[in-house]
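Example record

The entry below shows one chain as it appears in the dataset: sequence first, then structure tokens.
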Amino acid sequence: MAGRVVVIGGGGTGMGLATAQCFARDGDTPVLIGRRAEVVERAAEGIGGAVALPGDLAEPADVARLAGEIGERFGTVDVLVNSAGGNGTLEPGPPDPDDPIAAVAHDWTVNFRSNVLSAVLLTEALRDRLASPGGRVLFISSIAAYRGSGSGSYGAAKAALHPYAHDLARALGPRGVTVNVIAPGLIEDTEFFGGAMAPARRERLISETLNGRAGTPGDVAQTAHWLASHAASHVTSQIIQVNGGAQRGV
């Protein structure tokens, strides 16, 4: 094992995978976690030195098992990137779609589990293993935490990460551990939209940026890489906007 140990929740696709590739180029060891074993295993095979650990980060028993495996194999975690989550509307629908209140409860529960619980459980399971000093914790939020997502539940779930990150930064700061959040806007080449974004919506989202383009997974990965570097050791409890200025509106 060379370099740092970089644990990435949701590391099998999209921004998480791009982040793993970015750290691997520096000689670090990415540990990829995801629900779909075939996805994270295939991703790890494509990255020299990467390790795949399949598991559901919204399930406490799975998280406890994963944390135990990470502890036994690596001991210390240098960087933790919480990239798991996504648009809950892409998950299976409610058992009874004809019950509107049950459908609302299902939507909000799915988004909370996918975007909040997955990050909080993994972070809490590994917080005592974070390198002290020098540990880094990163959360992938969204522009939707500021501007809404159209459904309410996804943006609210992402926004919930912000106060948690601030509290965590305060708690871990004396150990020399930094905690930061990245808030992307439209990022193409991910599974977020399920490949079904209407051209008109894409054009509208791009028009809201100040630089006239969609983001890429690499934009987020490079930001995460910098936040995890020694150069960013005095940057903590911050929310870094990676959305071409769209967060400010037009």
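Notes for this example: The CA atoms of residues 169 and 179 lie 5 Å apart. The first strand starts at residue 5 and ends at 9.
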